[in-house]
Design brief:
By secondary structure, the chain is α+β, with helices and mostly antiparallel strands. The strands form three sheets. It has a nine-stranded mixed sheet with strand order 11-15-12-16-10-9-18-8-19. Strands 1-7-2-3-6-4-5 form a seven-stranded mixed sheet. A three-stranded antiparallel sheet has the order 14-13-17, with no helix packed on it.
Length: 762
């Protein structure tokens, strides 16, 4: 305790510089702890979403009492969001318990809606067609997954839902039917966030714990030479590092509390939560208040080892030993694993992520990242030594000799930015893998709307929705059910696509033999739809509102051979009917409007929003895709974007703290070189080269190793995309930005004022 108190006395009595350094360590640690608390709380936020969604799920049975309460649940798309409506007909028997968020079951004609639906009813009065009844109140927080959810309870009578209704037993499932993020996907997101945030965070906290390491080591060496024991010297060092880390942890938790209050009210794209969802848990507080000081103690103990073991070498500035080569073994091991998985894809037998391979992929990615960090000092040392021996430039020689003398400082300066580039590649791989799983394989997405749900004017407006490539009508033929003979007319049904040849080309991969103005047969060699129909078979299509109430179309002999996309509406069509063949001003009775757009998630969301603005009541069927899957993609994209922002913040903060601290530590050396004749321009160039050369080498390695790690992840994921060539320009742009930031941060670090006293000041 005496040594610990001595450390505190030396800290606060050692001048303004020591006190400023202490508060900088605490401030830097608070930023890291705030980011750590946010990462640790994200799973709790998602779990709270799913918990409330599971608690309100109706538990029903088909064997209930005759007078039991009936329930029908509908989940439709409203724009790019899911809109859930629960129709309830109260009975005289069985349970009458209310769902979470309500105090009672709604009666006939009564309506309880979420706050967001309440606002939409005022903004879009047409939405009342989906919500029959009088609004009696809003659903409370415990009945909604998140504040922006579209949810409604509608009271009705038993006769209206008797055909589809099931008897209500209660509310509450053990699981959410549509989780915010699927468990398998959440595992990938956690892994990506750990790489994006936790690895750079560990480096950043280590950097904060080693601010002004050189001057502190000289002070510790002086105490050791004065007779203080090894353990006592380490306790003196811990007094500064641990107290600063503890203060930073407390400040960071306070910063997170403020951030949670602000972000929960403003929200993130596709992700909203209540302030209580993001409340700090006991585990998170314990990790921050215990883990961060423990990390500071470990880093301080390791950094003080040389000062306590050989204090004379520290006081006399002995030549440091070359960096250890053990970190290179981790890098080689990690690259061996990820390269092996990449080789399986090149050989035509890609490995899967089943069993041991799942652990090996994670181990390979982690070993590669950690090995890259630990190898940077050795790489900087070797590069500086070789360049200094061969160069004839005084400026380059000065820069490289300094890096050769202090290779460990390079790791503290450039590691954050190197890890950011490495993690960015992994984040790209997670997004690619997720999109391959949740979206259709083809490049197009079809949307189907019943013509009976929209007007002719709305039908015309649909073609102008931003992102829609083309539109067409799919109409089903009428079947004469009163005739039982196999050879009777109109005994079989067929689906006709009402479109021009140009519209057909935009809906399929390839079409051959199409002629405008002619009724033709549609044939897909990879599909059996319509293969048993003979030419001349008649089909009748009925219409409403035109000059003719029907159109008889015999199956033509002329064929259009096409190749369709997976999960496409065209696959159900047998006949292509040109729009000019339909009766004037007539609308098919049994038909759907089909819109086609790109399958990119952003384009799909835009088209759904456009459809919702034109026809908010119409039910939209996404062919091969569901709105819940689209919402999950949005949530994952938001989480990864948040991780990238935090990783960027941590990386830039680590760089600024490290490079500023190094400039302050080297004021004596800079002053000495300046006094013997070096110009300020030369010293600025030296400072830039000391950072830019090892940073450029580290970023180059980060791009190569990151792409290998990403490819191994994609190979074992089983998707069609295994080599993300499209992501390379973005990584190179990130590299250029990191180098530019390093240059900009290094230029102002050589002051114009020369203070000769710095040469003798200890």
């Amino acid at each position: 305790m005496t040594a610990f108190l001595l450390g505190l006395r030396l800290l606060f009595g050692g001048g303004r510089g020591n006190r400023v350094r202490f508060f900088l360590m605490a401030a830097g640690g608070s930023i890291g702890v705030c980011c750590l608390a946010l990462v640790l709380t994200i799973p709790a936020i998602l779990h709270a979403h799913d918990g409330r969604a599971a608690a309100r799920q109706p538990v029903t049975t088909s064997q209930g009492p005759a007078g039991g309460t009936l329930v029908v649940q509908r989940s439709d798309a409203y724009g790019s969001r899911s809109f859930t409506r629960v129709f309830i007909a109260r009975g005289t028997e069985g349970t009458r318990s209310a769902p979470p968020g309500l105090t009672r079951l709604p009666g006939p004609g009564e309506l309880f809606v979420s706050p967001r639906v309440h606002d939409l009813l005022r903004e879009s009065p047409a939405l009342r067609g989906l919500l029959p009844g009088r609004e009696k109140g809003t659903i409370a927080q415990d009945g909604l997954a998140h504040p922006d959810e579209l949810y409604a309870y509608i009271g009705t009578t038993r006769d209206r839902i008797a055909g589809e209704g099931r008897t209500l037993k209660g509310f509450g499932y053990d699981y959410a039917p549509f989780p915010a993020v699927e468990p398998s996907t959440l595992t990938d997101v956690r892994f990506a966030l750990a790489t994006l945030v936790l690895l750079p965070l560990g480096i950043f906290l280590s950097v904060c714990a080693r601010l002004s390491a050189a001057s502190r080591m000289r002070r510790l060496a002086s105490l050791r030479l004065l007779g203080l024991s090894v353990k006592g010297t380490q306790r003196v060092n811990a007094a500064e590092t641990v107290v600063a880390a503890l203060l930073g942890a407390v400040l960071g938790l306070g910063e997170y509390w403020v951030l949670n209050q602000v972000m929960s009210r403003t929200g993130l794209p596709a992700l909203r939560w209540y302030p209580s969802d993001g409340a700090l848990s006991t585990t998170t507080v314990a990790v921050c208040l215990i883990g961060c000081p423990a990390l500071a103690w470990f880093v301080g103990r390791r950094s003080a080892r040389e000062a306590t073991a050989n204090p004379l070498a520290v006081r006399r500035t002995a030549v440091p030993r070359s960096p250890s080569k053990w970190g290179g073994l981790l890098l080689v091991a990690g690259l061996g694993i990820v390269s092996g998985f990449c080789a399986t894809a090149l050989l035509g037998h890609p490995a899967s992520s089943v069993g041991l391979n799942a652990l090996l992929v994670v181990a390979g990615v982690v070993l590669t990242g950690v090995g890259l960090v630990l190898t940077l000092p050795l790489i900087s040392y070797v590069l500086a030594r070789r360049v200094a021996r061969t160069t004839q430039s005084v400026t380059l020689n000065l820069a490289m000799r300094r890096n050769e003398a202090e290779p460990g400082s390079t790791m503290r300066v450039v590691t954050g930015l190197v890890l950011l580039v490495y993690a960015a590649s992994l984040a790209q791989g997670v997004l690619i893998q997720l999109e391959q799983v949740t979206r259709p394989d083809g490049p197009v997405q079809d949307y189907s709307l019943s013509l009976s749900d929209i007007t002719a004017h709305q039908q015309r407006e649909m073609g102008g929705v931003a992102g829609v490539r083309t539109r067409a009508v799919m109409m089903n033929s009428w079947v004469d059910l009163n005739r039982q003979r196999p050879d009777a007319a109109f005994a079989s049904s067929a689906t006709a696509l009402v479109a021009t040849c140009a519209q057909l080309d935009r809906m399929v991969k390839r079409a051959e033999g199409c002629a405008d103005g002619k009724v033709m047969r549609l044939v897909d060699p990879n599909s059996s739809v319509g293969s048993g129909m003979k030419p001349g078979t008649p089909f009748r299509f009925r219409f409403a509102g035109g000059k003719a109430d029907h159109l008889d179309v015999p199956l033509p002999a002329g064929r259009i051979v096409y190749r369709g996309y997976p999960a496409s509406s065209v696959q159900n069509a047998v006949i292509l009917v040109p729009p000019s063949a339909l009766p004037e001003h007539a609308r098919p009775r049994d038909a759907e409007l089909v819109l086609t757009s790109s399958s990119e998630p952003g384009s799909v969301r835009g088209v759904l929003d456009g459809i919702g603005a034109i026809a908010p009541i119409a039910e939209v069927e996404l062919v091969g895709l569901n709105v819940q899957g689209l919402e999950q993609i949005s949530v994952v994209e938001t989480l990864l974007a948040l991780g990238m922002v935090m990783g960027l913040l941590i990386g830039v903060a680590a760089f600024l703290v490290s490079v500023t601290d190094r400039a302050v530590e080297r004021r004596a050396q800079v002053t000495a070189v300046t006094l013997i004749g070096a110009r300020a321009r030369t010293m600025r160039t030296v400072q830039c080269l000391q950072v830019v050369l090892p940073l450029g080498l580290g970023l180059g390695l980060a791009v190569v190793t990151g792409k290998l790690a990403e490819s191994s992840y994609l190979v074992t994921g089983g998707g069609s995309i295994r080599w993300d060539v499209a992501g390379i320009p973005l990584l190179l742009l990130a590299v250029a930005g990191a180098v530019g930031a390093a240059i900009a941060g290094s230029l102002p670090l050589v002051g114009r004022r020369i203070d000769p006293e710095l040469i003798r000041r200890d």
